[in-house]
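WARN retry 2 of 3 for item q-0093 after timeout on previous attempt; input resubmitted unchanged.
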Amino acid sequence: MKKQKRDHKKLGRELELFFFDETAPGMTYWLPKGLLFIKLSITILAKLYQKYGYQEVMTPQFKRELYETSGHWFHYRDDMFISTHELPYVMIQRNHLKDQKFLG
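OK item q-0093 returned
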């Protein structure tokens, strides 16, 4: 029961921050309030990183084998998004989203 209350997919949609949809498996659709939060967080963190001498990195998504080797696959796989699609992802203009079924 507690896990359902903390479900980020449900909370993101209810709070109008973000949502997920089958049109882009595993990818986040950021809504205006959610994107504002992301931008503010990045700004704050960048200042803190600079202040304390940290450097930022950005990592890619990893193959399943890496998670198996690290042991994460066996402990966390139920909470991971696992893509079964072999099609490439396609980006669309963000203003076009308002016309889609998931934004009403």
